[in-house]
Amino acid sequence: MSIRNISIVVDALALASGEQPDRAVFLVDDCPESTGRGTLGLESVVAPGDLVRWNVIPIDLQAPAFIRDLRFPGPTGDGPGVDDHPTETPSAPTASDAEAGADTAEPAGEPVIPGRARIWEGIVPFIGPGERRAPYALELAFSDLHAMTIRVDGPALRVHAPGSPPPPPPPPGSLLAADDVL
Questions:
Q1: 128 in helix, strand or coil?
Q2: φ, ψ for residue 61, nearest 5 deg
Q3: 11 pLDDT above the threshold of 90
Q4: Which has the minimum average pLDDT: 7-21, 33-47, 84-98, 109-123?
Q5: Which residues contact 148 (CB under 8 A, 6 or more apart)?
Q6: Residue 103 CA to chain centroid, in angstroms?
Q7: Do residues 73 and 150 lie in contact, with contact meaning Cβ atoms separated by under 8 Å?
Q8: Residue 30 host element (H or E)
Q9: How confident is the model at residue 130 (pLDDT cuts 50, 70, 90)?
Q10: What's the count of helices (H) and strands (E) in the chain, helices before strands?
């Protein structure tokens, strides 16, 4: 089992000012074969049994962002059996803690809001041989911005089952090397 991290970098103030999500929400990961880094079209290569952890990083710390929901839309609109849930973070209790009545001591200025988490994680299920694309939708929420929420469609997991041919390498120029200058 590997742990795969997907960071959702959010400019909440730009979104509140009317900017489109494709210019204010950026997804990046640590999966070497992934494509679409820095865009809403991120496709992260994962394997069954991997732990995938989505983490929200606000650009402006005074405009916190949270994951309100993460879904893998299937034919019924629900996920295809993906075991996903918000998890506790050191910086803030999660919605699941608040709903369970757990100790939810609030960090200064950051209320516990049910249905909002900074980290969301899940285990990739075995969904058959070969490679499968599992698109997902994120719903992001923002405190202090009049309960604003946005839905982000486009990212996906590419689930690569063991014993299948390796995934194709990303196209040239889609990865930044350690010595690349931005």
A1: coil
A2: -65, -15
A3: yes
A4: 84-98
A5: 12, 15, 16, 141, 142
A6: 26
A7: no
A8: none
A9: confident
A10: 2, 9
